[in-house]
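Entry:
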Amino acid sequence: MLISQFLQEFQQELPLALAMPDDPVGVQVLTDDRPLTNIAVAYELDEATIGRAAGANAELIVAFHPLIYPSLKRVTGATRVERCVARLITERVGLFIAHTAFDAHPRGTSVLFAEALGCTSIAPLHPSSILPNAGMGAVGMLERELPLSGLAEQVRAICNVPSVRVSVPAGSQPNQAVRRVAVLGGSGMSFYNNAVHAGADAFITADVRYHGFHSANDQIPVIDPGHFETETFVVDGMAGLLRETVQRVGAAISVHPIHETTNPVRYIS
């Protein structure tokens, strides 16, 4: 089975129509449409990740974050993106991007995070008409009521970070009760009002700006553990969908999750 044929089949498991408008999902690099025997799955690309994929004899990398975004004007080797594109071409490795198509999948980014929190009765925060139970974000019920500080500690532990940012009015303590939780992995503050309207007691997302914390103190609190950290489950999640496609089409294709740390943020304490 050629790479292009497999990717056409894969879209039965992951419809690209789920993606946000203008998100560059789908094929970004494919200079050699050759028979597919190994797929590497990555959060995003750097040169070490491509090296790991090449070491697994992968003809294709399925990545979460786009490599080329919003555009690529030249390939000189001066930037990470330029070097990665050149390396993919040299190694004859194709690149397919899932990003917000996987975010909106019924077993996508935010659902996986909500499940890790132990949430039940999980539903999309912003439903999609493309696929049942699909949509951006997730909202669900914790197994038991927690103070905001307890939820923040649970998020910190799941994300394996030394600290998280929480919106709390000046002079107050994060002790308000939380049971219904909304989650949106990555930069999700544009869906904050969806979380409020869904009746959530708190909203977990990333890349929250200073004034966003101020605004949250007038409605429901936000918890921000970091962008990479809220998307920590996407590699294994995408690998699961790929294996479903492999099994369905009966192909002799191996799937190799790569848990390469590409997070450019470091916490110094």
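The chain has two domains: 3-101+232-256, 104-225.
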